[in-house]
Amino acid sequence: GAEVLFSVDCTKLKDYFPAEKREFDSIYFNFPHCGRKSGVVKNRELLARFFRSSAEVLAEEGEVHVALCNGQGGTPADQPRREWHNSWQIVAVAAGAGFILSEVHPFKAETIHGYQCTGYRSQDKSFRVEGALNHIFTRSTPLPCFKPVVYQTEVENQTVYFQVPQVLVDKIDRGFLELNSNHPVRTVKEKLTAELDQAFLLQNTDCCLPLLHQGHLSGVCHSNLFLITLSPEETPSTEEVANEVSSPHVDFCRDTDGSGWVQGGCHLSKQYYLRPSLLPYAQAIIQRGTFVPGILTVLSGPVFRKCRITPYSMPVFHEIIFACTVNRGTESSCIQMLVKNMKTSIHSLHQAVSSSKLSISLQEATSFETTELNDFAAFESQLSQVQYFICMDTDTLGSCERGLCAGVVRTAHDELTSSDLVVVLASLNLDLLAMLICGIPDWRMLWTSDKRFLQQFPRGELRLFKSFSLYPPSYVHDVSFWLPDGERFDEVAFHTIARQVSGEMVVSIQLIDSFQRAETGLKSLCYRLTFQSCDRALSRQEVAQMQERFRKEIAQCLGVTLR
């Protein structure tokens, strides 16, 4: 009952099927080849045209299966693995048509009834299929094109508006911790607090924590904050913003950091910043005297920080703070008891999901050199004095020797009216906890819009994450420039621009060379950027466009002279 078509051109599939027959669930191409002794370049071109053709006739959730001989694909699944330039580069070629590699299996010809491999050098001869692999591709969610977003909130009982920083447009109001969420970050928070509720009396105060913070954070570098300019009136429409306000009849323009508005050269209101920590709100509760001794108060919510691009540096993450008021002199025992219960709870969650080893240690902050601190620990140290770092490590993490700082413990007493009391405050990065417990290798995956991520975590369950985008291609670009004479180079701003123009597709920025002219004193820097997506198809052409935008933005925003 099957319909069989012969002499079908794999690069023009839609020409052979009417529109009502184009929604294929599966398309198989076993051992594609241009014929005879053609080189890798011609076969890459064949695959590229095939994938583009398949995209036109494949169902939305369909699969494309491509079987290749051992070594041809160029992925780590090939054993032995060919050098990249000598392979067919199948994941990069497929990405050009919007596909990601979701599964790889050995190709077993003996399991296919009646199958016989033939066609060696366009002849009726068999070829070796030992070690051959079947690559299964699925559609990727398209690369986002974020439009400017104007956010409405309440400040001092007044409705105000602000433009969301471009790098946070897809992260500002995701509701991961809301009651109807099945996101693993919320599940980790709920299970952790439920475990601690067995040892402490818990009180949640998550509601009504302001998104914006005003006031000076002593010791915190402003380059790490997302500054916001508020307006008491609704700001220009997003259409006007998207048009880059090119019309001379509209007297609005963007602030230098792209996060606020000025009108006629004057700021519309005071400057605030997106909350970088929940600590100021915990301190405010302490000052109001609403902490009840013996009760563990819980605050949680997203916080926002500009930071460099490193594997575990997040411009936004969900923080949870546990605060407990105790009698002075008993704070050390309270810290030990609280951390012990947190360690027990986290170990219990991890063991229910994974067989890998998770180590958690409480380390004195004074034992760390500044260079040993990750961005999370360094920022927490700027906020206020830290007594201990909570460090974690797993078999597969590959972090530094002392583990990855995922939390801090500090004490506070200056805000209390009674000199006999001390508040113990423990802060944890919930996003990092979810990654460690569920084996999520990339923090960006927590923010993906691909529904295949949340489908792996039914409501209230934590499971070991299985990636749906295997061996994503990476692309390297260099950029070199002269620094403005006599000005300090803001490396955090440099990284933030890279995040913004690439939509978080830059995974690494490395300084590979610096040079200073003896006669003028001018300094030149050369950085290497690595682009890679964890959940979407990313093509060479798209990366080239991102790199070009990046060059323009750093020249405009940082005043550097491109080389």
TrEMBL record:
Family: Belongs to the class-II aminoacyl-tRNA synthetase family.
Gene Ontology BP terms: rRNA base methylation; translation
Protein name stated in the entry: phenylalanine--tRNA ligase
Native organism: Chaetura pelagica (Chimney swift)
Catalytic reactions on record: tRNA(Phe) + L-phenylalanine + ATP = L-phenylalanyl-tRNA(Phe) + AMP + diphosphate + H(+)
Domain of life: Eukaryota
Enzyme Commission code: 6.1.1.20
Subcellular location: Mitochondrion matrix
Record's keyword annotation contains Metal-binding: no
PROSITE patterns: FDX_ACB (PS51447)
One GO MF term attached to the UniProt entry: phenylalanine-tRNA ligase activity
GO cellular component: mitochondrial matrix
Chain ranges of the FDX-ACB domain: 470-563
SMART domains noted in UniProt: FDX-ACB
Pfam family, one: FDX-ACB
The entry's keywords: Aminoacyl-tRNA synthetase, ATP-binding, Ligase, Mitochondrion, Nucleotide-binding, Protein biosynthesis, Transit peptide
